[in-house]
Design brief:
elongated
């Protein structure tokens, strides 16, 4: 009769075997590149979706400096001169009220480049770190093999992104920010989003667990590591990722 530990670990071992065989297939590199492209596009779309969440959940007017009015020093110098090009602009109010949701949405959309550039940078950094870890553990694969593993592992980030957007939407839908300035409103929103730390941490843990499985199976397949050393390398990086997610 198998021991309880064997019964518990058997499904995990089966999944690891499947991942190892998949990463060892001729199409593994193509899948890794495709995953990188999908996650890069998905992250950029996710940033736009976050802006849409702000626009849909934050229904408040805030006071901001009027962007159409020149600086005060300019108005003091040229504002009273009727022939000055600044005279009419200086008659504009110093501050205006704007829709906070739209402002936050525009601000979020300004970070789309983080998705387009950040994901490939993360892929390169993780692949190189993973390769060093594999070599330390006695692995024999190439740098390209490590990039394949990292490409497969990055797919789990879409789960974390999706869960984060849903959690933020739910939190802000039930929040009541009272700030009348952008700074005060930002403080209220940060406090509200912080209350969703628990669900976000759970989503991160699930995503990291999936990546752990992918890394262990990948290291076995392309770096010829035994399961124990492969699990040790994967656990090291998983612990760092969990620590970052918890901060």
């Amino acid at each position: 009769m198998p021991s309880p530990l064997a019964v518990l670990t058997s499904p995990i071992g089966s999944v690891l075997d499947r991942v190892r065989d998949a990463v060892d297939s001729p199409r593994a590199g193509t899948v890794a590149v495709a995953m990188l492209v999908v996650v890069t596009i998905g992250t950029s779309v996710g940033i736009i979706a976050l802006g849409a969440v702000f626009d849909a959940t934050v229904d408040q007017q805030i006071t901001v400096d009027n962007p159409d009015r020149p600086p005060e020093s300019t108005c003091e110098t040229f504002g009273d001169d009727p022939d000055s090009a600044f005279a009419e602009e200086c008659d504009e109010p110093k501050q205006i009220e704007v829709d906070a949701g739209e402002e936050l949405s525009d601000a979020a959309n300004g970070y789309i480049h983080y998705g387009l550039l950040g994901v490939p940078i993360w892929w390169v950094a993780f692949a190189l770190a993973l390769h060093v870890g594999a070599l330390v553990a006695g692995g024999s694969g190439s740098v390209g093999d490590s990039f394949v593993i990292a490409g497969w592992a990055i797919g789990a980030e879409l789960l974390r992104l999706g869960a984060g957007i849903v959690a933020i939407w739910y939190t802000l839908s039930n929040a009541a920010p009272a700030g009348s300035s952008f700074e005060a409103l930002t403080t209220d929103l940060v406090a509200a989003i912080t209350s969703a730390t628990g669900p976000l941490l759970v989503a991160s843990a699930v995503a990291i667990a999936i990546q752990w499985v992918v890394v262990v199976g990948g290291l076995e397949a392309v770096h010829d590591l035994d399961r124990g050393p492969a699990a040790g390398v994967a656990t090291f990086f998983a612990a760092i990722a969990l620590l970052i997610a918890a901060v």
